[in-house]
Design brief:
This protein is of the alpha+beta class. The chain folds into two domains: 153 residues, Immunoglobulin-like, CATH 2.60.40; 222 residues, Aminopeptidase (3-Layer(aba) Sandwich). It has nine helices and 16 strands. The strands form three sheets. It has a six-stranded mixed β-sheet with strand order 12-11-13-16-14-15, sandwiched between helices. Strands 1-2-3-10-9 form a five-stranded antiparallel β-sheet, with helices on one face. A five-stranded antiparallel β-sheet has the order 4-5-8-7-6, with no helix packed on it. Strand 9 and strand 10 form a beta hairpin. Helix 3 crosses helix 9, helix 6 crosses helix 7 and helix 8 packs across helix 9. The longest helix is centred in the C-terminal third of the chain and has 31 residues. The two termini are 38 Å apart. The structure holds zinc ion. The site of zinc ion (ZN) has 5 residues, from loops.
């Protein structure tokens, strides 16, 4: 386990998911906007609106002092307003024709660099509209305390305008690649090679393939011939705040003519076993459940699992399609299984059987660098396609 970085980047991603213990939420009473949160500092500020439904945001005006975004389909009962943090001095949400109007009073020169909608996922049951705001180039933004009103700030706000240690925004997707078996567990045996060797070689090649794009950070559950228990592999994915978990294996069977790749996702009946790998209290903390009530925790867990399961299935289809371009597939190539390693409730996870190590053609393909590289490249393409799709859904 080479020191994969649990940097503040991960904390920032956690903030998006609603789990950061950082700035206290500014609660908004009306429907529509459930709450408004801030993170970052005066160089980069992230504002998150928790919403009861999906909206599409449209820039209406962008003057020197005020930025106005229309949020279609969002119904608010009455105007809501609050003080901002970082580069946002204050905000207002009020009713407008066909939706709501979000007005931001920004620090001079500050600009919105990105805005996007995140669907419910990762233990959060609602939509989030995210705005990333950047300070004017090359200039230190003036302190936020000098609000337009000029009034002395309430104590709680004054505290929060102190520079927050700025966690960098995470742009790279974190992929956990799990090389099946290892150490005293060799996995299936081929004529000339053990499964654990094939999976490790493929995992390393996939890591290199993905990281070359500059868009992914890859965490391997093992990068040498060591034994890693299954539950530990799941914990590695959760601690890394992974966006995707892929476990690589090679199949075996009594009939040496059986060949082909296949993909597994978590079956419904196995989901109940989640408590084997997740401490309920740990999960509640992550889900930010009020009162740490077990019943609420279970509901959040169920919600998260459903969303995760759908995303796992989506990725599984893309994976099997791309791998199918390079390798033969088993007749029923996408299966559901109660595999321990897929049990992380909040990380989409699939298991890929790259082929049958007990079939000589498949074994050859998986042991030769050039052919293995083609399989790995197909996996890489499917991961790229999956995140391209996610981004399309999340944007505007
Ligand atoms: Zn295996």
């Amino acid at each position: 386990m080479n020191g994969w970085v649990r940097s503040c980047a991960v904390v920032f991603a956690g903030f998006i998911a609603g789990s950061m213990a950082g700035p206290l939420p500014v609660t908004a009473a009306g429907q529509g906007v459930l709450r408004v949160r801030f993170g970052g500092d005066r160089v980069e500020t992230r504002m998150v609106l928790d919403l009861d439904k999906a909206v599409s945001g449209k820039l209406i005006s962008d003057s020197a002092s005020e930025l106005v975004i229309g949020l279609s389909d969002l119904s608010v009962q009455s105007a809501q307003a609050g003080d901002g943090e970082g580069l946002v001095k204050s905000w207002t949400v009020d009713r407008a024709a066909g939706g709501a109007r979000l007005a931001l009073n920004l620090a001079p020169g500050a600009k919105v660099s990105r805005r996007f909608l995140l669907p419910p996922a990762d233990g959060v049951a609602h939509y989030r509209y995210v705005l990333d705001i950047k300070a004017a180039d090359g200039s230190e933004a003036p302190p936020v305390v000098s609000l337009t009103s000029g009034k002395p700030l309430p104590k709680a706000i004054a505290v929060s305008t102190a520079p927050i240690k700025a966690p960098p925004i995470r742009f790279k997707k974190v992929i956990v690649v799990d090389a099946g078996h290892g150490g005293r567990d060799p996995g299936a045996l081929g004529a000339s090679v053990q499964e654990k060797e094939v999976t490790l070689a493929a995992a390393k090649a996939l890591k290199a393939r993905l990281e070359k794009t500059g868009r992914f950070e890859v965490v391997l559950t093992r990068n040498s011939d060591v034994y890693v228990p299954l539950d530990q592999r799941v914990q590695i994915a959760r601690r890394a705040d992974a966006d995707l978990f892929i476990s690589l294996h090679a199949d075996s069977g009594p009939d040496s003519t059986t060949r082909g790749a296949s993909v597994y996702t978590l079956a419904d009946r196995a989901a109940g076993r989640v408590n084997e790998v997740v401490d309920p209290d740990d999960w509640l903390m992550k889900a930010n459940a009020p009162g740490r009530d077990r019943a609420i925790g279970q509901i959040l867990l169920d919600l998260s699992q459903r969303a995760t399961k759908n995303r796992s299935a989506t990725f599984a289809e893309m994976l099997i399609e791309k791998v199918g371009e390079e390798r033969p597939l088993l007749r029923r190539s996408h299966r559901e299984a109660g595999l321990m390693v897929l049990l992380a409730p909040d990380v989409p996870a699939v298991l890929l059987e790259m082929g049958f190590i007990t079939n000589s053609a498949d074994e050859k393909a998986l042991t030769h660098d050039a052919t293995r590289k083609r399989v790995v490249d197909a996996v890489g393409r499917s991961i790229e396609a999956y995140f391209a799709r996610e981004t399309r859904i999340a944007s505007r």
